[in-house]
Inverse folding.
């Protein structure tokens, strides 16, 4: 299962969303209220989903591979944001809409993770020299 990070400027909003997700069977790794906390959290994890308010939409440009962003905002704020590569959900939303969107993102994450496992490992220059010498 993908790691979930919730990021909102108001910590109470993030905690309420975490409670909602935990009640519905999701594990939330971290709750953040600043951009620096988000960047620090994603750098310590392998991949996952960042659920965020519109104030942190620019963080999407700094997320490493394996992370996706779910942006929760009003329709007016979503119109103002650059949504390239960001999944968005207009507020107010139904709980089931949030859960369905999150499930869709989890499926995408699991596909990405499976593809990463199938890729051959990149060998270091030293390893390639040893293999070449052994073949000769």
């Amino acid at each position: 299962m993908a790691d979930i990070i919730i990021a909102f400027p108001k910590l109470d909003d993030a905690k309420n969303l975490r409670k909602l997700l935990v009640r519905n069977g999701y594990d939330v790794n971290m709750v953040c209220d600043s951009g620096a906390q988000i960047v620090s959290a994603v750098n310590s994890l392998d991949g996952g989903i960042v659920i965020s308010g519109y104030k942190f939409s620019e963080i999407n440009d700094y997320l490493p591979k394996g992370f996706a962003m779910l942006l929760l905002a009003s329709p007016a704020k979503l119109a103002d944001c650059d949504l390239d590569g960001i999944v968005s959900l207009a507020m107010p939303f139904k709980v089931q809409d949030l859960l369905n969107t999150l499930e869709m993102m989890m499926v995408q994450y699991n596909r990405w993770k499976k593809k990463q496992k199938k890729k051959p490992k990149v060998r270091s220059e030293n390893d390639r020299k040893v293999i070449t010498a052994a073949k000769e």
In short: Residues 58 and 82 are 8 Å apart (CA to CA). The beta strands are 3-7, 30-32, 48-53, 67-73, 87-90. Helices lie at 11-23, 35-43, 75-80, 95-118, 125-135. The two ends are 44 Å apart (CA to CA).
